[in-house]
Amino acid sequence: MKETSPSEIKSVLKRVESSLPAKRASLVPALQMVQEKLGWLPKLAMLGIGKYLKVPESEVWGTASFYAQFRFKPVGENILTVCRGTACHICGSAAILRDLEREVGVKAGETTPDLKFTIQQVACFGSCAVAPVLVANGKVYGRQTSPSMKKLLGRIKKSTSTKAKSKKS
Amino acid sequence: MTEPGKVRLSIDGKEIETSAKATVLDAAKQAGIHIPTLCADDQLAPYAGCRLCIVEIEKMRGLPPSCATNVAEGMVVRTNTPELHRVRKMLMEMLLSDHPYDCLACAKNLHCELQKMAEEFGIRERKLRHLTRESVLDESNAFYSRDMTKCVLCAKCVRACKEINGVTAIDLSGRGFNSIVQPFGDGPISESVCESCGECVERCPTAALSIKKQVWPDKEVSTICPYCGTGCGILLGIKDGKIVGVRGDKNNPVSRGQLCVKGRFGAFEFIGHPARLKKPLLKKNGEFVEASWPEALDYMAEKLKPYIGADRFAALSSAKCTNEENYLMQKFARAVMKTNNIDHCARLCHASTVAGLADSFGSGAMTNSIDEFRDAELILVTGSNTTENHPIIGYRIREALRKGAKLIVFDPRETWLANQAWLWCRQKPGTDVAWINGLIRIILKEGLENKKFISERTEGFEDLKKTVDKYTPEYVSKISGVPEEQLFQAARAYATAGKSSILYSMGITQHSHGTDNVQSLANLAMVCGQIGRAATGVNPLRGQNNVQGACDLGALPDVFPGYQKVADEALRKKFEDAWGVPLSSHPGLTIVEMLNAAADGKIKALYIMGENPLLSDPDLHHVEQGLKALDFLVVQDIFLTETAQLADLVLPSACFAEKEGTFTNTERRVQLLNKALDPPGEAKPDWEIICELADRLGYPMSYPDPAEIMEEARKLTPQYHGISHSRLKGGCDLCWPCPNQDHPGARILHQDRFTRGKGKFTAIEHLGPAELPDKQYPFTLITGRILYHFHTGTMTRKSAGLNQIVPGPYAELNPVDAKKMKVKNGDQLRVASRRGEIKVAARVTEVVNIGELFIPFHFYEGAANVLTNPALDPVAKIPEFKVCAVKVEKAAGEK
Hints:
Chain A is 51% helix and 11% strand.
């Protein structure tokens, strides 16, 4: 994934305009729609939403910044989420997160400069039965340890680079 | 028994009768009972954020906040119990737990509401663990600082920005302890849509928002803002004989304490500016030398004497001066100099309104009052960038929008209002008659006209009907560029809304067919019967603080005060009797005609009071020729303006803060000025100077004060008959027409009958601008004004803050055109018309359409009026400022 281009933003705004009514109540669904498509909320997209819904831009920002689900920086191609809920914490998720941060080179909430990886933490993912939990690109990996995490990370790194190679050729 | 709409309740054992709509806090305040609060504000909706105003109410659970609890019959309220004190003190301790303790070094020290509240609760120590809010000090705004570490989250700023200004530049973002007031995207406030009106700073209880270089005044004097025609009340803060700040006057009925950036932050620096004129200046061998008043006035009288009665003298009066001064200036021209060559800058802004509406309705002014916009169901705004040029009226429109009013905007530029409109129609500049006729035709074809109103209240309808018939949607769309569908939408909405109000300004009037435009709007309103009732009408917004008054008091070449024609023998007789001299019967020259006549050698002497034609008039090169060809030019002003530099004699005058008198705002409301300071040096009020000059020319004028001038003026001016200084001082709030001393004035004109009897329809054909783009000059230039500067910049450009926000001239250019010309934001452009050439910076923006260019005219170093076309409206003689053809190129090798 790379920085979002203005044309990508334009096209997602078109989708917002064709599928949501131009009223205030559409604000959160519109933000969600943009984030689902682009992975984050670029400023231009938020301004576009405000203009379409006739919601002042400060209020678009006020609303978006209230919710933890919205991101204001581009995210990596791979999103790795470590659960830091009580059950996972008891089962050692702190160490998993620490080692993941070390392996990838950024802290939770950050994205690598090459936009390959984003690390996140959540308060509780709700899969306490298989704690500790790591979610990689939407897929849940339960009963993780540092070594299993590293293996998983290796596989993801490999598939990312092959994808990049196949794109080039 | 309680009256209807009232309830009785008891607060702290005190029986109180109050409005059923009041809150408990209101009721307590009314009864003189103090309840602590940090977030309540008279002008903002209840918020219940700080919780300090909690009270105990019998039969109610918990401790309800009094600011958000309505009164009820028989309510028993206690505001001051040990339990309330304990909870409030706890709340205060929590508020203080993350507040920095740097009171001594704080801008709000001794003026801080949090500090006062801590004092009230006797808090002497911090009990809770100290937490620090992380926030970067934002000094980016020109006038105020933002230090969110001192914020108590009362949200007064957020609410003021939304509920008063309406631009909503800030909001609470984040949540929990990380909640913080921010503009969009957490950038510096200067990069947000903030208009720097300062309504937030005015309300902030702490120094989270504080005025840079705050000096607290010793006393405050209430007077009227010197900028636009809205007529807001300002309090000039004075310390050690200097004005140190401005606040809004809550007692003013127009603005109710609200102000815009120019009024609050830009209305005082120029008053004490070192460049103010302090002594008369006489030009000797091409250089100005200081002269004494007797020397200057003797010289002037001697120079003017030969021109008495010869129509070779002309005078320019001023929409910046008081009603009394305008009355005297026109009396000076007519009774002393025996000529009707008297005009002022209304010629350049709303001459077409005065002529057009007077012909259609019988009265050339706003038909309704400003506050009524709030109650309109539909507002049609055309040719007015209201939120920038009449900001407080802009607030009222934003209020109407929040209440659900529909807004239709016809404007070639994407103004703030256009952006927020229910329907924005982007017509090509100068095609207004076409679209208005188009709307009328649709209304008639669909049977949406008000037949009863047309038959009972108007005349000339059949001619109009015939004329508009050819303006089919297809034809109009071709001329104006407005899609047919939009014409239908606009016509139907305007005609069918219960209360539709038309609001317009210079985008309508400043055309070579400005009177046609104005009368077309009058036609539209009358066809639908959208006039003569509350929140309807045709409402021209006047540009200068007293342009309405200057017109009313006769600073016009064809009419005496009160629009009484000089050519009418009976009316002339009335003035001859009153002034004791024979008067000229033929109308004098208008501004542009005067300067043309000067260039041709027909006008030899010109007396200019408080005007700067060398920046404000069209085709400046020609204006300069005219001024230089004069034998004698006198300029009376507060600064050595561009025009004054060409004068033979310059007379220093007092500004608005240094004199008494009245201003009439755009809604015909006459308001008193109060003197706050003495004029600098030997400067004198304009009325005194005129009197002394008249004495020397053998026509003694002697008035002890402006109130006496008004006494004379009002007796001769039917609309002002009942308006005297003593009534205004007594608190009367008067809009003309006010025919006698007991009359309450009139907010709404033409209610049962039009001033002229029947409303007159005028059949008008679309003609188009005098100069259209062609191969050689392919762009259409639109000139206008912006929020941060005023007119020729004589006053606003003395404000460091306003200059920081907009330092110099620029041209708005559409990105498509910019790309073609390889122009980037900030590049220098060379803009040329058939009349001249200027250099300005490019501002690339979609606000202007492709092929169009917008340049504000405030700046001498890139004066838009070098380019403009002096083509005149045949009736009103207003020049076509809004449309001319130009070519644009990138100035090579320059950034």
